[in-house]
Structures are given as C-alpha cells and as structure tokens.
Write a structure and sequence with these properties.
mainly beta, 3 domains, TIM Barrel, 7 helices, 5-stranded antiparallel beta sheet, Neuraminidase, 41% strand, Immunoglobulin-like, elongated, 9% helix, 13-stranded mixed beta sheet
Length: 631
Amino acid sequence: MRIDQEPARYLRSPRLVPRGAGAMLHLLSWEEEGDRVLVFGIDADGQVGEVGEADSGPFRDAISGITGGPEPRATDDPAIEDRDEADGHLVRIERAGYRSRVILTVPGRDEVEVFDAWGTAAAPCLAVTDDGVWVAFHHNVREDTGAPDLAKWVALRFVDREGRVFEPAAPMVDRNRDREGEEQSFEFPSLVTSKDGAVALFGRGSHCFYRQDLNADGFSPRRALGDDGWGCRGRRVAVATMASGRVITARRERKGIEVEVLDGPAGGAPRLLPVDAAFGRSVEVAAEALALDGRPDPAAAAGRMTLFGDIHQHSAHSDGIGTADEPYLRARHLYGDDFCALTDHESFLGKRIGPGEWRYLKQVAERHDDEGEFATLIAFEWTGRMHPGPGHKVVYLPDADGAVISRDDVPEGEGLVAAAAQAGAFAVPHHVGWTGADEGAHDPEHQPVWEICSCHGCYEYFAHELGQRGDLRDQMVDAVLRRGHRFGFIASSDGHGLLFHHGMARKRDPFRTGLTAVQATGRNRAAILDAMRSRRCYATSGVKILLDLEVGGQPMGGQLPRVEEVAIRAFAHGTADLASIELVGPDGVVAVGRTDGATGELDARGAAPWLYLRVRQEDGEMAWSSPVFMG
C-alpha cells in the first residue's frame, strides 16, 4: 500500500515501532506551516490508517528509518546517522581522519570494536537477539585489496555475549564493487531476525531498495523492492517484526511512502566465523597531492595561494549515494583537496529537501569546516527545465544561515539569479551543452562563473576531445562568450558516486573529472567565494595543474579597457608532461607557448574581447584559466 504525497504534504523519513499485531508508522510531513510528525497505524495485513500527529519538536530527517531504536524522538545532533541503539545496546561510528571504527556498547561490559579500517564506514544499525547482537553498516573498503574505493557495500557482524566478533561464513551473494550501470552499491542497511536465527537485511542501491536474507544455507540473492530506475528516494527501509513473525516495511519511493508486509526470514541461524576487527590495509596511505608536490605556486607572488576543490556533487539526500559526511571525508583525507561542497538537488524527481533536512545538511558541512585547513561551502542544486528552459544551476550561499531557493517557488533562471543576489549568494550553470546555458538570465555579477567540465564532459566547445553529454552547439561556452557574455571558468565532478557515472564519464572515478582551482587569500569559505566572485579561478579536468595568466597587468577574470595591444604572460606546471600551452580568443588559438616537461610558459602581445589560457598534458588532462575581458 502506498501513502501518496501531495503538493501540500510532502512525506519522508518512515520510522516503524511494533505495536500489538502490527506497528505504528511515524512519518515526517513537510507542510506549508512547517514539519509535522504524522502517526499511522498498520494492522497485520498491512492496512494503514492515520492516527494523528506526534509532537514534532525538531524531528530530523537524519534519523529516518533507523530500525531497532526507541520511539522517534526529537534530536538536533548532526551525527545521528552514525549510531543506532536498541535494548540498551549502542552502535556508533568513530572517525579519525579517514579511519573509521565501528564500536558496540553492550550493557554491563566493555565496548567491543567491531570494525576498524582506513576507509569510510557509515549508517550502522543493530538487532539484539538472545545470543548476542547483529551489527550492520556500509563501508567502501574493498575485500580483495583492502583499499578504499567508490562503491559502498553492507557488512554484517555478530557479537556474542562474551564480546567475540564473528562474520557470516558464507560469502555475500551479489556483492560486486565493480558493477557498472545505473544501479551500483548496497548501503544504508536495516535488519530484523527471526526466532530461529535467520536474518533479513534491507538496504539501498544507488536507486533501488533491496532485501537479502541470511540463514543456515547462506545468503540469498538480493531481491529488488518496488520500482527501479533513476530517481530520488529515501535512504533507509524501515522494518519491524510483527507478532506473527512477518515483517512490515516502509520506504520512501518516488511517489510516496510504500508500506508492504513480507514474510519474515526463516531457515535457521547462519554459520559464523571469528573475524578480526581490523580490516583492509593496516597502515594509512597518504592522501594524494596533500601539498603541491614541491611545485612553485604562481599565486604566491600576489600574496595568494592556489587551492583545489570539488564543489558540485551529490549524495543519497538526492540522486547520489552515500551519507552527507562522505564527500567531505573523501575530499580532505583521500584526495587531499582544500575545499569541498555537497550540492544535492533541492527538488528533483519526486524528492524535495525541506527545512529540517536542509538544516541537517548545513550542520554536517559546518562540522567538517576547519578554518585554515579545510573549507566547506554551503550550496544546493536548483534543477530547472532543460533547454529551452533554464537548465541546472548550483547556488553557493555566503554562510550557513541561508535558505534554499526552490525551483518550485522560483521556476525561472532570471528569478533564481535575482533571489540569489538578494540572499548574498550566486548561481553557477553547468553541463550547458546538455541542459542549456539560460543565456537570457545571465548576470556577470551574480552568476560570475560557469562550470565547464565535469563527469558529463567538457563544454568549452562542441565535439570536445574530452567528450560531452548533449549536443546543444549554440549553448557551448565558446559560442556564448562570442555573443558578448562575461563569466569565469570552474570545473567540478557533478559526481553521484557511480563508477564511470553509469557509462557517461571518461574516468572510473567520477569525482576526479573536474576540479575548481582558486587563487585565494586564505583557506576558508569567505576567501574561496571571493575568488570565485572575482573570477580569480580556473577549471581543470580533475588533476591539480598549476597555472597563471596575466593580460595587461590584469589577472585571470579581470577586465581591461579596450586597447590596441598589451603584454600577455602565462605559466603552467602540470602533474605530467605538458603537450601544449595556448592562448585562446574569439577566433581560436592566438598564441602558443613553450613547454619543457611538466612546465610551460607563454609570452605574447595582443588584444581581443576576451582571452584565456588552455593547457593540455600528454596524458590528456587539461586546464582552462578564467578569461580576461577587454572593452
């Protein structure tokens, strides 16, 4: 049975509590007057009847569907998705850098370490039995190499009454961290057990929900629940065991909350083997390019520093995978980036981010912001209609006080840019050759930069060698520049956590298909946003190429009056040998510099309405400075 959402009542975050022969279902309802917690009764046949309203308090989307816990209760803790509790037992995630530990607290005894690895573990849940405690969580550490990877998969551990840790002896059927296509990963687990010891495990792939049972015969194949295909759903399956032994499940599908009564797990307790908590590599590996590898920073001459970050990516809070913490952990500790933004769709494919969830996402970003060491930006994606509609834009807010500007309230690009300006924010169009540039809404002050490269390809010009999704020739960056518009360049991954972005990306790791580089006065949010506003920034195809451009004494992004001819100087230092360093204007390449291994220089004189630097490496990676404009 489905409880349909309505425009005036957006439902999410199912939570089940067993009651008599059935269960009580708690749902978060975002309505015009604010969030409410609605309570429904579910009988043994799965029939649903609305009971009333609970005291909502600051009920948070972050606690959606964590099974085995107490009654839904008010909480304002942004780390709530890193723990679960039931019958006095508590499981939690502890992190130190990129290292994750899963810790179980059992009443009356010492803590038990269940898992310890250099990687991301998240979304724990537990189920207490007469013999011990089942603990489930997802992590990104490969079983074959012990190294962290992109795909997450659910892991199961059993802790007996003596505190010993076990894992199922049978291999997990269907586990494939290299699976391609739209449906990848298996994360956000919930579980229940039967009286005979069998286990029913529920989780989410990149889009579809699944069930997988474990009993004396081992693991069953994963079985899909509900509809499949690309979309924004909930994160967890809420599940509760009824007195009959059957289980009630509730999950947020694209059109509402799906309630389903299923057979409980059966077939006896699985065979277990002792397992060490330490998993994967025993020593941490250094994050790549934590510094600039000894390369001189060309921004230092102006009292600035070149910083790199991916500021457009998605999580399971929209149509990606993973928790809201994972992008920040990955950026800082795995890639060695300087800054990061999580930019989930605020309204897309049936899902909306309401005030409670938005507050949670901002709190997570604030928790990872580390002044002078690592910066987080507050942002969201506004998803308009495809060309000739306004396309897609990311909105970057000045601080964590800002509210979402919803496409449901502001459906056109011109209105969005105006609303962003009023909020002290700015908008950034992306994949313009696919969904459109929204040229009529462009404002060089409040839409100062465009994202020109991502996992969808490069939109510098039509039929780019890095590939591109879409074929809107007149929406490409070069075409719009020639029509007189002014904007700087950035790049980001637009990653959703899928290998090769389900076949659309040129790299296995979509999070390394685009990077924004800024020449900033400090490693902090305000300085990074200021560099983007002033267009003192550039785009790369995913590697940390250093470059600089000066035209008539103006840095990249600057403006000059119309002149006959000025001196032009450029420099680049790549991560591999350079193939070319070129100056590009409205008529194409206007000057070519010299390369020597990984370095390149360009000295020229000239004038044009706009000029930018393009760098190519022998390995195919590229970088593009923001243009300098004249006239």
